Every structure is written in structure tokens, then in C-alpha cells.
Amino acid sequence: MPFVEIRDLHKSFGDNEVLRGIDFDVEAGEVVCLVGPSGSGKSTLLRCVNALEAATSGSVTVDGVELTDPDTDLDAARRHIGMVFQHFNLFPHLTVQGNITVAQRRVLRRSSSAAAAEARTQLSRVGLADRATAYPGQLSGGQQQRVAIARALAMHPGLMLFDEPTSALDPELVGDVLTVMRKLAEEGMTMIVVTHEMSFARDVASRVVFMDAGRIIETGPPADVLANPQHERTRTFLQRVLQPGRG
Amino acid sequence: MKVRARRRLTRGVAYAVFVGVLLLVVLAADWGRLAEAFLRPDVAGSMFPGVVTTALVNTLIYTLLAFVFGLVVGLALALARLSSVAPYRWFATAYIEIFRGLPALLVLFLVGYGIPLAFPDREIPGGLFGSVTVGLGATAAAYTAETLRAGIQAVPRGQTEAARSLGMSPTRAMISIVLPQALRIVLPPLTNEFVSLTKDTSLVYVLGVTAGTIELTKYAGDALNQQVNATPLVVAGLLYLVITLPLSQVVRLLERRSARAVR
User: Fold this and answer.
1) What contacts A1, CB < 8 A, 6 or more positions away?
2) For residues A14 and A6, is the Cβ–Cβ distance under 8 A?
3) Strand A65-66's sheet: what is its strand order?
4) Do residues A32 and A191 lie in contact, with contact meaning Cβ atoms separated by under 8 Å?
5) What is the reported pLDDT for B1?
6) Are the C-beta atoms of residues A46 and A34 closer than 8 Å to each other?
7) How many angstroms away from the CA of B121 is the closest CA of chain A?
């Protein structure tokens, strides 16, 4: 059984149908990149995978737990699905260490020394071992995003969701974040990444999913979808993204 | 050149008017009589130490009691107002609208005299202190609730989403993530609320205070009657300012700090 299983997923905001029947699986250890024009529904799809958005109809199952079942304890399910947001969403009133320990202590009930040790481990993993006592406001965007990744990893998630993790960063800071994500992928983490970074998708993704207007248009290994797209819409999109200024 | 000359003339006139009015007041005033009415050292001296050890202390106690009551009830009302359960929202909205629309003095009368009339065999615990806590706190709660609601809503949605994505329940996210940030945002308006409560304690005398429970305004009023001199009012006024001016300064500091804070 796939680690993530999505069946006939529909999502509407009022009259606006954002997802129009998505069927989509992710195997354990896969890195799937969701690409597509803005408004295509890829972020909404990602947010349905940890039930930050409630599906209108259809089913989402992660690690055997059906999130769309009304009897599912969503808080318990989300503990092991890490999420990284476009705007980091670090807690500005807590230090870097506080950001990484608060859920460990309040949700997983780890002792404060165990949580602090875990925070140190994850911070060195993202290359920020020396910033534990800083506040988010004192960090660069790239550092903040790496702290956000460490915060999610500290919960030992089985799946990591990335929602345009580099879109809010200055171009020279994108590399550090992508390096961390690349390392994570090499270590075998199951990842779903909404991104406009085509080079990351090409180099790291095991599969690329191209979405447009709430539907999956095509999916396959990056070499196929990015280098040799079968659909006109994919071709148009890739031309715009890969050759900015000429689209 | 012409523009600059005219600007200089305008400014000159403004200064001249100011100095003229000031001179008029200084020359016309009868300083001896003013000092006799407002600044008699012997009258001021006779008020000490009671005006500080009893009146000022009681004013502070009334303020603190009402403020804490307002904060606790106000927080409950703010959360009710944001609740997904509609009747909670209705109740909180009704409470806030009603108590913000009533004069504090009327509410104080209601609690101090209305409730004892309605429930003659029951008493608000704490005697006068209890009545003041509820009487002034009931109004304060309405204002505090609106302040806190605004603060909670000012915390970006992404904060709650990040907390929920880490497995926190809505309650846990509110307590650990949203409220600490909201309180920081509303610290300046809450301090203002404290300042206006300090002044509202001058209404407490309508409930009938004794020598032990007297507050600043009543104390000054009594002294005014006894001595037939206005110096006690000046003394009481200065003591109010001893409480409120530092707080206003604190608000200014907090506002400057939060303006400087990044994100």
C-alpha cells in the first residue's frame, strides 16, 4: 500500500472548485515535486495531505490513516507529517530552540532535556547549531526556513510537505535551503514539494507531477515530464518557467 | 525671498500671541490668592501620611482587583466571541455591547445596591472590595475583551497553521502560540485600560466607604470640606499622576519597542 493515497479528491472554496478530482499516490521514500502555474491547486492539494484544508469529497490516506474519515484524530495524525511553509511561520516570541522544542514537549510530552537534545541534533543537521538562542527576527530568511525544517524534523515525521519553501527567499539564500532538502531526500525521507525550482525537481525528484486548473495533467520521472512533456499545457508552462522573459 | 519673509512673519506672530497671552495671565492673576486656595503647605501636610498609606493604597488595590477581574472575564469573553459555537458568540457580543454602552457609575450602583436588593440573603464575597471588583471589573471586562479579541486576530493565521501542523490541538495552539503573541500586541492598550480604571476608582465612594476603605478622591473631598481649602484636590491630583504618568511612559516605551521589532 502506498504511503500517501489520494482518491478522487475534490476541494471547493465556495463556488470556486480548486481541486477537480485528484488521484495520486506517493510511495515511501519517494520525492514528488508538484509543479504548475499559480492557481493550479498544487498548494491546496499539499494542504489536504495534512488536512490543513478539509477535502470537499474524496479520500486522503497517509500511512494507513484516512484523514478524510470524520472519526480520525487529526492532531495525532499531523504529529508525524512535517510541514514547511512559504513564509516559514516560525513562532516569533520563541527562540530557535523554543520553536523546535515547544511541540516536542507539549505534543509528544518529551522531557525538556530530551527535547533540547533533539533540537541540537536537528539544528546541526540544517547547519545552524550555533543559532539556538537567537530569535527568528534575528535570522535571515534562509536561516529561518532551515529552522522551520528542523522544527518539523524534530517530530520524527514519516512524510515532509514543502509548500514553495524557497519562494519568499532572496535568490542568494535559496541554495542553502535546497541543499538541506537535497540531503533529506538522499537520506530517504518521503517528501512532497510544491516548487518553482525546476533544477531541484530535475535533480532530486523521483517523480514530477504537473497540475493545471485543479487536475493532474501529467506525471512521471523528471526526465520525461520536464525534458519531454507530452501535453501542450506542460510545454507552455515549462517554456515560461525555464526561459523567463521569453515566455 | 517673498515666501520666506512671509513665513518668518507668520511664525513671529504665532510667538507674539503666545507670549502676549502668557503675560496677560501672569499679570492678571492674583498669585497670593491662588496660592492660598490651592497650595497651602499646612493643609497639604495635614493630609499625610493617611493620603498615601490609606487612600493611595486603596486606590491601587481597587484598580488592581478590577483590572484582574476584567482581564480574566475579558479573556473568557474574547474567546467566546471567537468561538465556533454560535450561542457563545451571541452572549459575548451582547455582554460587550451592553457594558460598553453603560456608564461605569451606573454599573457600580447596579452591583453595589441592585444585587443586594435582589438577593437580600446573599452577599458578594469580600464586602466593599468584592463589590468594587465586580462593579468596576464588569465594565473593564467589556473593553478588555475587545482589546484581546483584536490582539488574537492580529496574530497571523500562519502561526495557528504551523502549530496545528505540528500536531497541536486548537486549545494548545491558542495557549502556547497565539495568546503569548496576542498579549504582547495588546500590552499598550491594556496599560491604557489600567490607567482609565485608576481614574474610575474615584467613583467607588458612592458605595459608602469607611476610614479604612477610603480612596484618593473621597479622601481629598473630605479634606476639602473640613479645611474649606482646595489644596487637598491638588495633592490627590498629583498622587493620581504618580500612578498614571509612569504608566503612560511605559506605554510609549512599549509602542516604540514593538515598532522596532522585526516582523
Assistant:
1) A64
2) no
3) A16-26, A4-13, A57-62, A65-66
4) yes
5) 65
6) yes
7) 46
Q: Do B161 and A82 touch (CB under 8 A)?
A: no
Q: pLDDT tens for residues A127-148?
A: 999 999 999 999 999 999 999 9
Q: What is the pLDDT of residue A246?
A: 46
What is the ipTM metric for this complex?
A: 0.94
Mean pLDDT (whole number) for B254-263: 65
Q: If pLDDT is split at 50, 70 and 90, which confidence band does A244 have? A: low
Q: Does B160 touch chain A (CB under 8 A)?
A: no
Which residues of chain B does A79 touch, with a Cβ-Cβ cutoff of 8 Å? 166-167
Q: If we measure between CA atoms, which residue out of A43, A25, A26, A47 comes closest to residue A35?
A: A43
The full DSSP string for A30-51 is -EEEEE--TTSSHHHHHHHHTT
Cell numbers 495552539: residue: B173
User: Minimal CA–CA distance to A156: which of A91, A108, A89?
Assistant: A108
Q: Do A89 and B181 touch (CB under 8 A)?
A: no
Spell out the SS3 assignment of B192-215.
HHHHHHHHHHHHHHHHCCCCCCCC
Pairing of strands A190-194, A207-212: unpaired
| φ/ψ of residue A26, rounded to 5 | -130, 125
pLDDT at A240: 87
pLDDT exceeds 70 at position B260: no
Q: Which residues of A touch B (CB under 8 A)?
A: 50, 52, 75-76, 78-83, 85, 87, 89-93, 102-103, 106-108, 136-138, 148, 151-152, 155
User: Which contiguous run of DSSP H or E holds residue A202?
Assistant: helix A198-204
Q: The cell 497651602 sits on which residue? A: B40
The verdict on B161 touching A (C-beta cutoff 8 Å) is yes
Per DSSP, what are the bridge partners of residue A210?
Answer: A35, A218
Digit-coded pLDDT (tens) for A172-183: 999 999 999 999
CA distance A35 to A209: 6
pLDDT confidence of residue B261: 54
pLDDT digits (tens, 9 = 90+) for A208-233: 999 999 999 999 999 999 999 999 99
Give the B window 166-195 contacts with A, CB below 8 Å. 166-169, 172, 176-177, 180-181, 184
Cα angle A166, A168, A171; round to 5: 65
**The predicted structure's pLDDT at residue B255:** 78
Best mutation target among A67, A72, A102 (most B Cβ atoms within 10 Å) is: A102
Look up residue A182 and give its three cell numbers: 537535497
Chain mean pLDDT for chain B: 92
Chain A residues near residue B156 by CB distance under 8 angstroms: 89
